[in-house]
Amino acid sequence: MTKEQVLKKYFGYDTFRPLQSDIIDTILNRQDCLVLMPTGGGKSICFQVPAMVLEGITLVISPLIALMKDQVQALQANGIPAAFINSTLSANEQRTIETQCRTGELKLLYVSPEKLLTPNYLDFIKTLKISLIAIDESHCVSTWGHDFRPEYTQLYVLKEAFPDIPMVALTATADRVTRKDILKQLGVPDAKVFISSFDRPNLKLAVSPGRNRLKIIHQFIAQRPKDSGIIYCLSRKNTEEVAEGLRKLGIAAMHYHAGIDAKTRSEVQDAFIKDEIQVIVATIAFGMGIDKSNVRFVVHYSLPSNVESFYQEIGRAGRDGLPSDTLLFYSFADIVTRKDMIDKSELPPEMKEVQLAKLDRMKQYAETEICRRRVLLSYFNEEAQNDCGNCDVCQNPPVKFEATIFAQKALSAIARADEKVAMGLLIDILRGAQNRNVFEHNYHTLKTFGVGKELRYEEWADYITQMLNSGIIDIAYDERHSLKLNTLSWQVLKGERKVELVKFEPYEVKKARQEEAAPKEKSKKEVIKDALFDKLRILRKKIADELNLPPFVVFSDATLSDMAQKKPINKIQMLAVSGVGEQKFKQFGERFINEILDFARENTEPGKTRVVKGFTYVETLDLYNKGLAIEEIAQRRNLSPVTIISHLIKLKEEGNDINLKDLLPSYEYNQIIATAMRLNMQKGDALKPLFDELEGLYDYGKLRIALAMWEGN
Ligand code: ADP
Ligand code: ZN
């Protein structure tokens, strides 16, 4: 089979993504290669397709047991014989798999590095006909990578054992140093390197000021009541609080962190994967080894420590390529917390500096006033050609205003309070708040007390934060975060420097404006598509439960969406849906077709346009199956008998059980066909000459039936 045929037959996809095709050709040419693609980029196809094209078995080294299991499950669902070997299997199970390897039944074998390196195991592998070696998550071989695993450094033995077998190393994260190191460690220094863009255009990027987080998350989820998502928090306690808060608001949310016992953890994870929990609130302990392709949003409750982690975490959304959302909450306090964490860590000073520099890049992302995707991609040394149009800055460019007076008010209040107040108290002074803290320090007697009444608390908080960000105000973390003046502050106070700020807009207002700008009124078609998608999703869950599989293994969201769009009602149409390969068609096709037909029946009103193309045939078929004669069907459907006949002929061609002979006595058939033969008629010829030759003895419907029967023979 060619690689294209494999892609269609087993995976149900029509075309390769950029690079996939080149990578596979390289492998089929027996060359080594290194593949760098972001999460969801489609790395697996790069070795799974050659595995099916090549003779023999593909050995896949994969570090995460959970991932192995998922991948094998997904392969099997596509009708590809695959298995994994790791410490979780019994000796018996292992033996069965080893036998399948020897007999050549298996096409892909997943092995953990630990297992591979146990004594004699490599000897066993050497007895097999290995066609390709794939090293997944290959950054783990490098001490430079962020997930270094000592077992991985032994993997050079593979190339020694199989010098002529192509090797492909894959990873979603590797900078230049790591990249080189991977190739060195694996003993393939000359491997061809493929680097795909790290852009994930389907991920929408947005940042919100870190206030009223729970309320905003609630609104955010309320707009996506059926979508799965992950919320990342900084602390364990935080995950528990947020999950609890969301549950009180009626959202199926659970927390997850490394402090929970292993059993509960795996139950929570399982429920999430099976679409039984909508939201996971987790520390960064969650996500490694989660392959769930239909995560529709990722929220960061607090600021991540660096852009790599952030990108990896948001990368867990939208692996299936469908539009997905990301939302980062950002406040100055988060920066402070992160800085404290770095300060208090055991790291050597130079590492602390690196961490601080990385934190600073994260801050830049959060604060940027240009397209966020540009900022993100520049971090990965990629230059975006255009503004993305799919981030909050692009969709809602910041509006600036002349804010020198506001800045002066704030700065002078800081000065008069002897640079001893933190942000909260400063705002109280500016707004003239009558509270104990203010009275205790006699701040109500300051000249600046109440000079900033015209702004609300959150407006001041936003503007002071902006001033901190732009360096007009300093902050002393070691003095209870009291605000300080610097040279720039004095320039502003003296009127030597002007200040511009971005106009504050509460999240809700911003959101509402965005929605207004983008006409959200769904067309009738979209409404129908969404309704069908929901029905298909319910069926998917039912099937997944019957088979004890994650729903996204049955079909991805992307596949369901394409199906809801195309509304296939026969085999050919169903196989044209992206992600429906032969095995999945065999296993699930009929049930999904029936679901679509039911949907069409429920939604079709006489005389109205049909929601499913070709449904008119099905309506005819339904009546035919009830035993009605052609004339009766025609009458009921208000169509001519000739049309009904053409329906039945087409239905027959599509493999439906239609007995054309019942529709035409055999002497009539014989006479028509004898005449057609005499006229030397070919398939597709016009019927008029035949009609004339028979002197109008039979109507066109009968002629069609006879010819269809004839061609069918
Ligand atoms: P990665 O391992 O790089 O994170 P996957 O291999 O899991 O990514 O692929 C991500 C998603 O994209 C999967 O749902 C996969 O089936 C789908 N996919 C991969 N290649 C194609 C393709 N050529 N056409 C359509 N979908 C694809
Ligand atoms: Zn943008």
From TrEMBL:
CDD domains: DEXHc_RecQ, SF2_C_RecQ
UniProt key word rRNA-binding: no
Pfam families: DEAD, Helicase_C, HRDC, HTH_40, RecQ_Zn_bind, RQC
EC number(s) given by UniProt: 5.6.2.4
Keyword terms, alphabetized: ATP-binding, DNA damage, DNA recombination, DNA repair, DNA-binding, Helicase, Hydrolase, Isomerase, Metal-binding, Nucleotide-binding, Zinc
Broad EC category: isomerase
Any one GO cellular component localisation term in the record: replisome
Catalyzed reactions: Couples ATP hydrolysis with the unwinding of duplex DNA by translocating in the 3'-5' direction
The Helicase C-terminal domain, residue ranges: 213-370
GO biological process, one term: DNA recombination
Annotated ranges, domain Helicase ATP-binding: 24-192
Cofactors named for this entry: Zn(2+); Mg(2+)
Annotated Gene3D superfamilies: ATP-dependent DNA helicase RecQ, HRDC domain, P-loop containing nucleotide triphosphate hydrolases, Winged helix-like DNA-binding domain superfamily/Winged helix DNA-binding domain
Domain HRDC positions: 526-606
InterPro entries hit by this protein: DEAD/DEAH_box_helicase_dom, DNA_helicase_ATP-dep_RecQ, DNA_helicase_ATP-dep_RecQ_bac, Helicase_ATP-bd, Helicase_C-like, Helicase_HTH, HRDC-like_sf, HRDC_dom
A single GO molecular function term of this UniProt record: hydrolase activity
Source organism superkingdom: Bacteria
PROSITE patterns: HELICASE_ATP_BIND_1 (PS51192), HELICASE_CTER (PS51194), HRDC (PS50967)
NCBIfam families xref list: recQ, recQ_fam
Family: Belongs to the helicase family. RecQ subfamily.
Record's protein name: DNA helicase RecQ
Organism in which the protein naturally occurs: Emticicia agri
